[in-house]
Each structure stands twice: as C-alpha cells, then as structure tokens.
Design a protein that fits this description.
single chain, nine-stranded mixed β-sheet, alpha/beta, 17 helices
C-alpha cells in the first residue's frame, strides 16, 4: 500500500493533467475555450482574517470553553487547568488553493483553509495540522474561526504557545466553498488535506518561514480524516512526527452499521441527520442517481435534502422527527446494509482509514460514554496496526464520564506536552 501511495503522489500532476484534458474535451465544441487544468496545492491567494491577542485567547479559555461544554457530561472546570494562561499573539490567514475532486474525474476546485502564525515564528517552528470534526453549518469551518469553537480551542492550546496551525476546510465546507459537501468521501478528503499542506508551505515561504516538525491532530470526523492524511503524507515520504485522534471513527461503514443495528440508549440524536448527509454526498459524487430516494422516506426527503444543502439547521431537522432512525430511512436501507448488497455500502466499506502500517507514533483517545464513537471504533487503528507490528501506538481512555466533546478536550490537554517532548 505504501508503494501505491508513493507512486500515486509522485505522478499526481501528470495523471491529473491527463484526466482533466480528457474530461474537459467531452462535450466541448470547436468553439469552446479550453479550461486550464488544476495544479493541486498551488497557492492562489491569502487574506488576513484577524489577530488573536491575549484578550481573545483569555475569552476562549473562559467563555468559549464554558460554552463548549453546554449540556456535556463534564464541565470546563474539569479541564481548564490544562490550558495556558499566557499567550503569544497569533495572526490568522485564510488561504485559497487549487485542488481536484478525484470522484469527479479530477475536476478542478478552489479550496480554502486556515493558517495561524504565532508571533515570533521563525524557521524551525513546529506545525500542527488540525482536522476539524463534522459541522452542520456551512460557516463553521477553520477558515472562519469565529464560527468554529473547536478550531478556537486548538488555536488556544497550540498556536498561542508557538505552533503554526494549519487546517483545511474540506471541499464543501466553509463560507467560500462552491461545491456540495464531500462528507466522508475518502479520496476528496485526502486530496483537500494534502493540497492544503502543500499550499500552506508555499504561503509560509512568503513569510520566510521554513516550518519545523509536523504533527497531526483531529477530532471526530477529523480523527478519521487525520488517519487518511497520515497515510497519504507517509506514503509521499513526508515525515510526520506524531499523530493523535480524538473520537475518530476508523471506518464510516462500521460507524454507520453499528448505529443502525446496535444502537445504544445514549447515542446522539443527530445520528440520522449525519447519515443522510453521507447518502447525499455519495449520491452526488459517485453518480448514484436516485440513491437518496431509495434510502430516505418521502416525508423526510425534503428536510434531509435541505439539511445537506445547509439550508436548515440541525434543530429544524430534529424537530421534523429526524432523530429516530425509523422515521427517516426506508426498509431497503436497513436490509441492504446487513448484507452490503448495494453499491452504496460497497463504496462506504472501501473508505476505511486504518488498514495500513504507520511509522510515526500514534495515540487514539476514546471513551465508552462517547455518544458518537464507541471504543471499538475509536481505537481500531491502534489495535490493527499493533497486530501487524507497530510498537509506538497507544489508546487512551478519556474517562468514564467523558462524552464526545470531553474526549476532544482531554486529547487537547494531554497531547500538547507529548508533542512538546518531540518538537
């Protein structure tokens, strides 16, 4: 697998160019203006967002952290001591870069992300690549940090303490993205993150900064994405110093089927809305015409579609009855999932993130009280990779009362000193 990834990355420009030429030639008459193929990772622009100063970071440590734990099983006071109380100023930038959508024959796309540079950053400053979790609002992306509380917490813990933080929005997320949500699409997600890494290095060159060691961290969907990014980086012989996932599902297929056939009393009510987003994403990008109408009941279809398109919020979806699986999905959806007897399930099962052998140290954080990701999914990469010879991977219980958000914050608190020991 490593060889395949290495060859893929080395030939990416050639393959993308050929694919784009072929794709754009279809349907273009002699009078058509040829489209320029994408150069994945090419920096297009960078815009200053704002600077977080001591006052901003103090607000994040106090007010934002309290708000983050609203209706959680734990409180901010359980973790506040693990966050810093003195801070560097951090300049925030939104960058735009070229990329391609592999599921659409490498169609060109403009993607966005956040680069946060602490005051005094010089060559050798460590870089944290942060992968964000699922968002139900289009504005809630790293490149729009005032609408992303999880991003602000990562900036507090790392950027304010001297790390450069880089975070891709993913295709379809963020206020400036013009394509549909690529929710749990393996190849598009890999492409977005890898090209964000390339573009961020180009941007840092404009600041005369050659970054130091590279660390990876992701929460929830971002934990899954971190494993994808980890694999692609190491496959391209880009050194990763260490990687951490918090409540990261190893496999979308296992995540969904567990929720369908072995639900727990405390499972998150927004499981069905997340799942219909996966269905629309796969219908859109794999050309599975009619998939959503096969699997989503007619009385919930318009609500689910509007939610995927970011036209309604999660509260509206749940108020329409979307918190119950049986209210949302057709019998065919449940039946085909048991036997994987539909193209959707086959594609979903191919989207795993953990069946490979990594080099860099890996930590995975989990909790049996997590209402989204159970222990067996949150620790699957460590279990598998240890079974095939990895000796530097460990699983960490965030606590018996730690819910989904608490796992993330526990990981932030414990990861920082671990990364510091290696930078």
């Amino acid at each position: 697998m490593m060889t395949r990834f290495t060859l893929s990355i080395r030939s990416v420009v050639t393959s993308i160019t050929l694919a784009l030429v072929a794709a754009f030639a279809i349907g273009c008459g002699s009078d058509s203006t040829p489209l320029t193929p994408a150069v994945p990772g090419k920096l297009i622009s960078h815009d200053s967002i704002k600077t977080y100063d001591s006052q901003a970071f103090e607000r994040i440590r106090t007010v934002d952290l309290d708000n983050f734990f609203f209706r959680s099983t734990m409180t901010a006071s359980d973790f506040r001591g693990g966050f810093p109380s003195t801070y560097k100023n951090v300049a925030l930038y939104r960058i735009a870069y070229e990329s391609v959508i592999p599921e659409l024959n490498n169609q060109k796309v403009i993607a966005y992300g956040l680069v946060a540079i602490p005051e005094g950053a010089t060559s050798g400053t460590p870089i944290l690549s942060y992968q964000h979790g699922t968002t139900f609002g289009k504005e809630e992306a790293p490149s729009n940090p005032e609408e992303s509380s999880e991003t602000r917490l990562a900036l507090l813990q790392f950027a304010s303490q001297g790390y450069i933080v880089v975070a891709a929005d993913y295709f379809g997320n963020g206020p400036l993205s013009s394509v549909p949500n690529t929710y749990f699409l393996k190849r598009s997600t890999e492409q977005a993150m890898f090209d964000m890494h390339t573009a961020s290095l180009e941007f840092l060159k404009t600041k005369n900064i050659q970054p130091g060691k590279l660390f990876l961290l992701g929460w929830s969907q971002g934990g899954y994405n971190t494993m994808l990014h980890f694999r692609m980086l190491e496959g391209a012989n880009i050194p990763v110093t260490a990687a951490v996932t918090a409540s990261g599902p190893a496999s979308p297929f296992q995540l969904i089927t567990r929720g369908l056939y072995a639900p727990r009393p405390f499972d998150a009510p927004w499981g069905p809305p997340s799942l219909t987003n996966v269905i629309f994403s796969y219908e859109t990008y794999f050309g599975l015409t009619g998939l959503s109408k096969e699997f989503i009941k007619p009385n919930m279809y318009d609500t689910a579609r509007a939610f995927y398109d970011f036209k309604i919020n999660a509260t509206a979806y749940l108020n329409a009855g979307g918190y119950l699986l049986e209210n949302v999905f057709t019998p065919k959806f449940f039946e085909t999932g048991k036997t994987k007897s539909h193209r959707f399930w086959e594609l979903l099962s191919q989207a795993e993130s953990y069946l490979w052998l990594s080099k860099a140290p890996l930590r995975q954080y989990y909790s049996n009280r997590d209402e989204v990701i159970p222990q067996e999914l949150g620790t699957a990469a460590v279990i598998y990779q240890t079974s095939v010879g990895k000796t530097n991977a460990t699983s960490h219980n965030a606590g018996d009362s730690a819910d989904h958000r608490s796992v993330y914050v526990r990981a932030l608190v414990e990861t920082k000193p671990w990364f510091d020991s290696m930078k």
